[in-house]
Amino acid sequence: MTRKPHLLIPTLVFCLCAGCATNPITGKQEFMLIPEEQDIQIGRKYAPEIEKQMGGRIPDPDIQSYVNQVGQNIARISHKPHIEYHFIALQDKSINALALPGGFIFITKGMLENLQTEAQLAGILAHEIVHVVARDSANAMSKEIGLSILLSAVTSENTPSGVLTVADLSKQIMGLRYSRSDEQQADLSGLDYVVAAGYDPYAMVETMQILSNQSKNRPIEFLSTHPAPENRAAYLRQKIQNSNFNLANAKVGKEQYRAAVLDQLTKPN
Ligand SMILES: [Zn+2]
Known about the structure:
Layout: H1 4-18, E1 20-22, E2 29-31, H2 37-53, H3 61-76, E3 86-90, E4 97-100, E5 104-108, H4 109-114, H5 118-133, H6 136-144, H7 147-152, H8 166-174, H9 180-196, H10 202-214, H11 221-224, H12 229-242, H13 254-266
Parallel strand pairs: 3-5
Antiparallel strand pairs: 1-2, 4-5
Helix pairs in contact: 2-8, 3-5, 5-9, 5-10, 9-12, 10-12
Bound molecules: zinc ion.
Residues 127, 131, 178, 183, 186, 226 line the site of zinc ion.
């Protein structure tokens, strides 16, 4: 008689758990194909190409530092403050914002031009920070593209046909959609972050109204990968009304935003 087969059980359990990670947003264990350490490696590999494909950075150090400072205010109170976050404003005219694994968060000129307050900017960045914290982008990238492909893509433009380049994959990454529940979590936890950082959470409802109004004039890139803004505004408003937030000193920052972003973007060169 042998008891050997029993030894397999703990080994198997260990193996199954090796790819598990607790999502701090949902508190649930999730199976992750990408180890968390690789998030930064992937972020660093794809961030320069995303920047390039979206017109490069807005060449105004004051706008960059303002966007970064608002983002860092939120990142500091997030579930993962230890990540090195980068908040980058891009020249692209589309109305968009996106996050790469490892803390690289982009917002376009088109989005910045349409926002009106610092609290609205904080809301967009908070939503993207939640995607990083919950590792939604890492998850979607590993499922849709595959870790080995992501890591083995080459940077050279002169590659034989059939070989995937970082440029090819960056286009796919920009079009990735997360699940409806991931998006709702990003909105609702983003709302908590906005309040914890001292901002007015109604700004997130306003942003949904801005996106909804703009979508009547032209297709909005951010909306092609996100649920309808009217639905998002409804559950955000409901959460604010059901919460006991103390909003007495909540910051809106309309003047600050106008001076730091809108006036700078319309300034003749
Ligand atoms: Zn999102």
